[in-house]
Amino acid sequence: MSSYQTHEFDVLVIGAGGAGLRAAIEASSTGQSVGLICKSLLGKAHTVMAEGGMAAAMGNSDDRDDWSTHFADTMRGGQYLNDWRMAELHAKEAPARVRELEAWGAVFDRTQDGKINQRNFGGHKYRRLAHVGDRTGLEMIRTLQDHGIHQGFEVFMEYTVVELLKDGDRIAGAFAYERNHGRFHLFKAKAIILATGGVGRCYKITSNSWEGTGDGHALAYRAGAMMRDMEFLQFHPTGMVWPPSVRGILVTEGVRGEGGILQNSEGRRFMFDDIPDAYTHQTADNEEEGWRYIIGDKEARRPPELLTRDHVARCIVREVREGRGSPHGGVFLNIHWIKEQLKDGSEHIKKKLPSMYHQFMELGGVDITKESMEVGPTTHYVMGGIQVDSETQMSIVPGLFAAGECAGGLHGANRLGGNSLSDLVVFGKRAGEYAAKHAAEQSMPTIDAGRVEEIERHALRPFETGGDGENPFEIQHDLQDMMQERAGIVRTEENLSFALDALTGLRERAARARAYDNRDYNPGWHTALDLDNLLDVSEMIVRSAIERRESRGGHFHDDYPQKCEKHGTWNTVVRMKADGSMERSEQQIPAIREDLQAIIEENQK
Amino acid sequence: MTTTTFRIWRGTGNEGSWEEYPVEISEGMVVLDAIHAIQAKHASDLAVRWNCKAGKCGSCSAEINGNPRLMCMTRMETIDTSQPVTVEPLRAFPRVRDLVTDVSVNFRMKKSVTPFTPRKPDAADGTWRMKQEDVDRVQEFRKCIECFLCQNVCHVLRDHHKQDEFIGPRHFVYTAALEMHPLDTADRVSDLKKTQGIGYCNITKCCTVACPEHIKITDNAIIPLKERVVDEFYDPLTKLFRIFKPRKKTEA
Ligand SMILES: Cc1cc2nc3c(=O)[nH]c(=O)nc-3n(C[C@H](O)[C@H](O)[C@H](O)COP(=O)(O)OP(=O)(O)OC[C@H]3O[C@@H](n4cnc5c(N)ncnc54)[C@H](O)[C@@H]3O)c2cc1C
Ligand code: SF4
Ligand code: SF4
Ligand code: FES
Fold first, then answer.
1. Whose CA is nearest to atom 4 of ligand 2?
2. Using the beta-carbon criterion (under 8 Å), do B51 and A210 form an inter-chain contact?
3. Does one domain contain both B235 and B128?
4. A32-51: per-residue pLDDT in tens?
5. Alpha helices, DSSP H only, in A160-261?
6. What ipTM was reported for this prediction?
7. Residue A194: domain span
8. Where a domain ends, among B62, B85, B101?
């Protein structure tokens, strides 16, 4: 039964966000044949939603900045669980990647002297984020897309990869289905780059779109790759909380970068109440100094609203828990107060934050130049991901590469805002380059037709379940509710153990998920297929979280609310065992190079 | 909570019919939420495109009560619910299933536009200098989220099916963004006239009205491009001038 079409490429890229597009451009430039697959239309990936900016130590807005400070900030933000070599490469190469985007047509906001302007963001010591108002992601993805379509790679839009294939140990291809008519396609490739983005859809409240189901994480895991740091999720402090239909939609950190302050129901700026020791020397201790920082006074220290996201999110949870929240269970984010400081305050807000202005006006009926926004934490980003070689981005599966959000390492326990967009292009480029190199040295692998048939049968199972099957949307909602409740921003041993058991039950239900009618553009069928990935990823998160008995970065364990030095020496890794079960272990962090250690110490002063 | 009836076009390709579904409406709901509620409760196979749910990706275009809109940005409070609310796919594109249409023609149209071609860098380190005010001029066009609502309403495509001769308002916006880019040096004027059909546009402004990003497509993109076409093809002086000074950017 050969009911699929076969395609062959030297390099296959799965995912067309910033990372996938940059990888495809690079791989094509070597003359290798390249295919690019994505679940949505071209240009609609998550990257398009990024708002605030892209971190790169160009020193345009503050000439004290350089790669070493960016490196130290990234490591501090990641609580030193980062792959330090990746953090070094990222800090060194990000400026060149930003300039390259400009050379391809991106139009960033400018400084007075005509250079690329840079803005404040949490955890970054200097003004470092290249940006275009609050639609930086759109600028990035459109630039890469418009440049990319002339580079000769072939694009398969609205195709979904359901499983990876191997030839012995090495990667051999991917099996996909095409959305429009539900037909199957086999992609044979010498090298595959996963650039599938995040996992936010494991949770109920998230800034991620339907695409964020952790497919790449799950595909790589099932293909034998090692996963790292999966306990670390970023709960962005400011998501919309009202009305219910927009709950979770992101409110960019750029609002705070432009002077927005967080207040509780008593009007108090509660972020001044809890400044972690590691940050006291660089955080303002009064409102007046905080404002001076916002307007560019180099002597001033950052306002506490710009502390790292994990910390700000937990402070918000505390305020709400202790009864000082806003009417709909969040806190207040106030940008209109800057009118006291700037005479054209309203215009300034509309100019610097145009899409936030529209978002609140049109979806919430709130005029942010006059009223405060209600905000609360939302599942935003996964620090954990596929473990890759720092230089080449290859996983332990020969020929399988990963870049962007689905790869782990760069961000450690917590990502700094703006470090993702730069990550995408720095490591997207590297993955493209090394995957092409790898492919050039390989012959076309062979594919086991029996295995393909097995995958195909599995993919069609929801149609056979028929009447006794369960609605896949219900299973998905129950999983999201459970993860939100039990493995969310504040975790406990009891809740995590509960989650583990609950996942077993959900897996049984997922096996009976049904789809009906025909295969053409069928969201029920698609959701049924997604479930396997969501469940694998959720299990990785829960198993990794249970064993980290401390609180660090994105992982807050209520039974162990302190950070513990001895847990700072290892990363969690997860792998699939031969019997298909999940194995979690600890991996020692390799000793850091001396010169890098010196930079870290220098920046702690 | 109130219950509202939705009439949705359901079908594969051109075969299909209108189906009605009841939806409970709560505060702040948008049309896309209603579609998702129908999907979760009554019709798990109801096909719809969406991604960001915040008007940023341009995936969820449809015709709501006959108006071209983004479903995720259309609040229930703003539409007439005294009659069943109709939701149907964009009419200018071939239907795939339910609310999903085949918009691939737009990607082909875009490829026909000469890509960005920058002048030599201004500084030794390979970077350029640009003024914020020059940048502001193109940023209006670069806001485009490729929702294709403008393509959908333009009569040249919708009623006259000139897909092979006319690239449509979205791609005039794209061309304008490149032509007015402070660094660009390519000349797209001849293509606009000869193969991209800018002459078919009779400035009805329907595209501008439909644009959810409030881009002044006709006034700020199409009319200036038409002026360039006129300058280049019908004004002998400009043409002569061009022979000696091919860089068009000075006049931008
Ligand atoms: C609202 C929002 C705002 C943000 N703001 C910022 C910011 O200001 N600065 C910053 O640095 N970061 C920001 N981020 C984070 C950043 O945008 C993302 O981490 C980043 O865009 C991820 O890019 P990516 O290339 O890894 O994947 P994505 O852009 O998520 O793309 C994933 C791609 O993989 C494809 N795919 C997935 N699974 C499959 C499959 N099974 N088969 C085929 N294709 C598949 C998808 O279709 C898609 O094309 C923000 C995120 C959000 C949600
Ligand atoms: S103004 Fe021109 S492009 Fe716009 S809808 Fe009318 S004819 Fe079409
Ligand atoms: S120009 Fe406006 S209407 Fe047309 S595709 Fe872009 S955003 Fe949509
Ligand atoms: S879902 Fe992105 S614009 Fe509507």
1. B207
2. yes
3. yes
4. 999 999 999 999 999 999 98
5. 215-222, 254-257
6. 0.92
7. 4-232+383-440
8. B101
